[in-house]
Amino acid sequence: DHVFPHSTQLATTDDASAVPAPPREVSDILARSVHAKMPLRRLTMPRAVRVLGLLASVRAFSGPSAPSAARSVSLKMSDAVEVSIDPIAVSTEAEYAAGEMAPDVAVEKAERFRAINAKDMEKLADKYPRLQDKLIDIKRSALIFPFKASPYLVDELIDWEMEGDIALDPFYKLVFPTMDMLTQEHQDLLNEKCDGGDPKEIKGAIEEIREALNPHPAGQKTLNAPKKAELTGVQHKYAETVLFFAAAAQTCHAYCTYCFRWAQFIGDADLRFAQKDADSLFDYLEEHEEVSDILFTGGDPMIMKTNMLKQYLEPFKDPNHLPHIKNLRIGTRALTFWPQRFTTDPDADSLIDLLREVKEVGGRHLAIMAHLSHYRELSTKKVQHAIHRLKQEGGVIIRSQSPVMAGINDDAMVWNKKWKEEVRLGIIPYYMFIARDTGAQAYFNVPLVRAQKLYAEAIRSTSGLCRTARGPSMSCTPGKVEVCGVQTIQGTEAFVLRFLQCRDDEWIGKVFFAKFDPNAIWYDDLEPLPGMTLPWEEAGLPRPCVDEPCQVEWMDEFLDPVYPMEVV
């Protein structure tokens, strides 16, 4: 299936008489093992020739076998070009052709990742004709929102046979943008400029629309970034946790249409968090011993090759390196956008080895923070194999989190089945988030009251093992605010809210109230109850917390807690 720049080809053949006696190492291999399996690898030309010669020698040495059809492997004649060779299971008792499976040896064929971009849409529409009438919509909206799809997701998760509009499939909606994600005003502006065809005017409209979409919510640029010039890829919002954005990780195998970090992927350096060197991060952490956790994020750190990821993780194999760092988290979508990253990618084995050594040698807790939106993501053998390898061979903990998004997973049954299946597979349910105030929030938002009812209904019929999931939570400027329910407080219907995390740790775990509003979708839609204040200032920064009823106005006269807690 390859197109080769040279006419020279190399072929394997079933003519054993043309093969010399097996070399000594082949005899040794067969003597030590009843079944020897050749793993799938990416091979440069010299190594490929040696491996093919070795396999031919094994075939000759293993004695007579049933005749099989001739097969050949074509290779590029260049040391710099990598080629794929199908997995072959070798046995002293029988043989299995390339791509076949021995009865007791399961082999997953390797696939090279190649992203699907806007320029590929016509070709993709030839494969999936239901895309034909969506092409203009996708291409124009992709001028505003970054677009990239994973071939795995497109081929194995979207239900192309579904009845009705394919745009209603949750995985279609997850990766293919639409003009409906924009306000009518912005749709009209973009369509007018695109129809006019002036590149300068189109570019101006794109910049205007993107700026109106709040590219950096929750004070990511203004409040979260340390004021050090060399720290271009670090956020430090909460005392114990630092976020790190490796420069090579500022892309993903596919982009979620609702991604709150969409500004990372539009090519604007002023909007982007990214840092190349690890030393500046380590220097910063050395100065901040209150930090116990690093969250490697992006983009997606798992887009990096293992050799690149090593520069950030390998130092933690030394227990004396920043010993106050106890927990390493890796935020990723790769588990269900490209599960082959953990199974058949060329450096999948070295990645698993790296994760295991950081845990076992370095003594760190290593967590994969998996973005999982829907139970269907967990249904394929490829994903289940990746989960098994990460847990059993890598020794990591996998936790799941996702926002609740209209048209994708705003259904209690979806979350109920998702949490149950996660627990069955050994994944710990972690967070249900609310759509952030950026990008296409208006298109995807689920009102706070509906999100809370959905969460309560979903978790009600689960066992306690699923009830580690917290939410629905707004990850907003003051902190992570959980919507606990609706109650009548002093004769007024009110939201009951609680800080799960906060810039001011005095607020963590504290309950507070806000007027009930059936249309509220974000924390800045909330209003205080009569005689109370909300626990944040107008800019979103938390007010000082005095005691449990912190928001009651008459408590402002008390400056010290009634029962101060002794710090241990």
What does the main sheet amount to? 11 strands, mixed
Distance between the termini: 66 Å
- Unreliable stretches (pLDDT < 50, length at least 5) are 1-106, 554-568
Which range best describes the helical content: under 10%, 10-25%, 25-40%, 40-55%, 55-70% or over 70%? 25-40%
Quick take:
This protein is an alpha/beta fold and 568 residues long. The protein is built from 16 helices and 15 strands. α14 packs across α16.
Task: Characterise this structure.
With 568 residues, the protein is an alpha/beta fold. The protein has helices at 24-32, 45-61, 121-127, 135-141, 151-156, 170-175, 184-196, 199-212, 279-287, 306-313, 334-337, 348-360, 381-393, 412-425, 441-444, 448-460, and strands at residues 35-38, 42-43, 83-84, 88-91, 234-238, 241-245, 293-297, 327-332, 365-371, 397-403, 428-433, 470-475, 479-489, 492-502, 511-515. The strands form three sheets. The chain has an eleven-stranded mixed sheet with strand order 5-6-7-8-9-10-11-12-13-14-15. Strands 1-4 form a two-stranded antiparallel ribbon. A hairpin with a 2-residue loop joins strand 13 (479-489) and strand 14 (492-502). The longest helix has 17 residues, at 45-61. The chain is globular, with a radius of gyration of 27 Å. It starts with 23 loop residues before the first helix and ends in a 53-residue tail after the last strand. The model is unreliable at 1-106 and 554-568 (pLDDT under 50).
